Amino acid sequence: MAGLVLCEPTELYNILNQSTKLSRLTEPNYLCLLDARTKHEYNESHVITARRVKQNAMGEYLVPESVELECVKYCVVYDGKTSSLDDTYFDDYEEDKKDTEAGAATQCARVLEQFTRHPVRILKGGYERFTACYHFLRTQKIFWMPQELDAFQPYPVEILPAQLYMGDCKQACDQQIQKDLKIKTQVNISEETAMALGAVLVFSTLGLSRSSTAVMAFLMHSSHYPLKRAWKHVQTCKTNMRPNRGFVQQLSDWESQIYGSVITDVSEPQY
After folding, report:
1. Smallest Cα–Cα separation from 82: which of 50, 132, 130, 117?
2. What's the burial of 256, exposed, middle or buried (CB within 10 Å: 0-12/13-18/19+)?
3. Which of 151, 167, 189 is a domain's end point?
4. How far is the CA of 144 from the CAs of 22, 51, 71, 149, in angstroms?
5. How far apart are CA 126 and CA 109, in angstroms?
6. Which of 183, 152, 182, 174 is nearest to 48 (CA)?
7. Which of 31, 57, 138, 186 sits in a 20 to 30 Å window from 177, CA-based?
């Protein structure tokens, strides 16, 4: 079995907003997002592209028939507010009803993990915490046509929650994105700014090379990350980021300047 892991809200946000030429949500084996809440709660609103996981007459969760879980890269399950992998239920008192529901995602994930190659992610804090951070990614829409997913406009990836984002020129020009993310400052990578004024969006033409280089350089300076850690963090947020070789060497030089010596071997294949 692949196992279970907790998924921070920012991780699901970044999974939903990965893109190449189109949103990666168009790929059938990219993401299986499942809502383990009640039918009423799901119909009221849910995270975009999420489908409600069904139960049989015995209350056991059923594996979605339309999804080949062994081929799916990300399988994410959420309920109302689960915050740990503990699936203990409380049935003694009516006032514990909310606690009873808190383990729904874990119960569902334990069924799904038998069919996946990758760990099943359980959204930490559930729907409540995610939508408190990203209210603009909730919907009542149940069915998504392929052309609708093709037209889905991803948001910039989040590097530091509610503080630092990385995107492209098109996203930088989108007023709705600026409003939803509360962007106060935009940096066209040649400028310097501080995040004390609010959230910052760093962007370049495609949002892959120059912007990722600038963000890594910032993390190395402000968070004292060596290049290897900064690279891994940004790549986790933006999976197709790709600084060119010249920028990689500049980052290596920057690391040497900060730490007094080179820590990361940029001749390794991942760089």
Report:
1. 130
2. middle
3. 151
4. 15, 10, 20, 7
5. 13
6. 152
7. 31
**266 domain-assigned:** no
182 and 218 share a domain? yes
Residue 145 located in a structural domain? yes
Q: Which amino acid is at 169?
A: C
Distance (Å, whole) CA 249 – CA 149 = 37
Tokens representing 226 are 């060596």
Nearest Cα to Cα of residue 14 among 201, 240, 187, 236: 236
Query: Residues 71-121: pLDDT tens digits?
Result: 999 999 999 988 888 755 444 434 444 444 448 999 999 999 999 999 999
Q: Which residue has the tokens 């079995």?
A: 1
| CATH number where 142 lies | 3.40.250.10
Which residues form the domain of 135? 4-151
In this structure, the number of other CB atoms found within 10 A of the CB of residue 162 comes to 13
Express each pLDDT in 222-260 by its tens digit: 889 999 999 999 999 999 999 999 999 999 999 999 888
Quote the tokens at residue 231. Answer: 């690279």
The span from the CA of 39 to the CA of 50, in Å, is 13
